[in-house]
Amino acid sequence: MAPSLGEAHSSMKVPQNAAWWKKFLAFVGPGYLVAVGYMDPGNWATDIAGGSQFGYTLLSVILISNLMAVVLQSLAGKLGIVTGRDLAQACRERFSMPVVIVLWILCELAIAATDLAEVIGSAIALKLLFNIPMLYGVIITAVDVLVILLLQNKGFRALESLVIVLMATIALCFGIDLFLAKPDMGGVMHGFVPSAEILQNPAMLYIAIGIIGATVMPHNLYLHSSIVQTRQIEQTPKGKKEAILYSTMDSTIALTLALFINAAILIVSAAVFHSAGMTQVAEITDAYHLLTPLLGTTIASILFGVALLASGQNSTLTGTLSGQIVMEGFLNIRIPAWLRRLVTRLIAIIPAVIVTAIAGEHGTEELLILSQVVLSLQLPFAVIPLVMFTSDKKSMGAFANKLWLKIISWIIAGVIVVLNVYLIIQTILLF
């Protein structure tokens, strides 16, 4: 079976007989592409709502969901490095064709939902920063497909570099907003300690599950298992072991940055809105407009808007890559990159345009929430096969999950399944 992303497969050399840090730098990149999905516009609404309603309490949920992500992404990276197969290809090899087709459809729906969140997030940012009507903003987002194509022609490293620059922009913007918000550091530290109140308060539990559902992204598992293969490594047990170590370091550091950004969104919301008694701020637009009067400076709102735009654009890059990987992996269908990007983007833009035209801005905010529910539906269908495959000694050999890692992985999979089912039921009841 030919590798996915054939044009980039093993395209980046890893220096041999070099210092460890030089080897590590050669592996830096895929983790940041993956981390992007953990801070996309879909996360913003849940983080803002959690901070405004419950202060710093739900910071522990962001921390726990991030730790889950670290484990799952390390498994995805390991699968790609050891077997030379991404998660979609592994599913195609192991399962019957009807099962593969169902998994592919679910995955395409999840990618479309992700792309929908990016389209809406970018359109909201364009409206807030430049007063461009939402309908036009949604249409403008189609142009970034051309940017992706242009970058891919310059090599995979160019794509990784842009993602890292955009992530640094988001981190800088929220770093300044954090400074301006002057949060209660004692409250922040206390917020990272899990509280029994989260399980006892239904409203708090609902948002907590929303944070987990919006944080752990199913398409990232397919993405990571493929893009780790862009590195040219020694196909020996020693070479693979080394690659797993550096790949895990890369994704863990990148996800720690994602943790900082997600936590910063919630902390700013808690410090600015919750402390002012504004406990019902849940929409991105409201947060943007309220930051200036409450902090006494327009720079806070502008930085918020810039970070949102960077977040939307960043997530678009990884979403379209994921689309290519799952189509090639599940179906072994290879179509021109430009056509794949165009189809992926149109699937997201068409419902966004229709809803914006009919229901206006409020409709797009509801569409953003719905996109996260679709992602929640898909998540177990990506996590369970991943844990199964990486625990299988037949395909993984000496790299199969150890007993302790198996236990942790299955606990995470079980928690995700239970929480996502609960979230879906609650959302259906709300609608």
TrEMBL record:
Domain of life: Bacteria
Keywords associated with the record: Cell membrane, Ion transport, Membrane, Symport, Transmembrane, Transmembrane helix, Transport
Pfam families for this protein: Nramp
UniProt signal peptide: none
Transmembrane regions: 20-39, 54-75, 95-114, 134-151, 163-183, 203-223, 244-268, 288-310, 342-361, 367-391, 403-425
Membrane topology: Multi-pass membrane protein
Primary location recorded for the protein, binned into one broad class: membrane
Cellular compartments annotated: Cell membrane; Membrane
InterPro entries for this protein: NRAMP_fam
Function: H(+)-stimulated, divalent metal cation uptake system.
Family listed: Belongs to the NRAMP family.
Name assigned to this protein: Divalent metal cation transporter MntH
Organism lineage: Bacteria, Bacillati, Bacillota, Bacilli, Bacillales
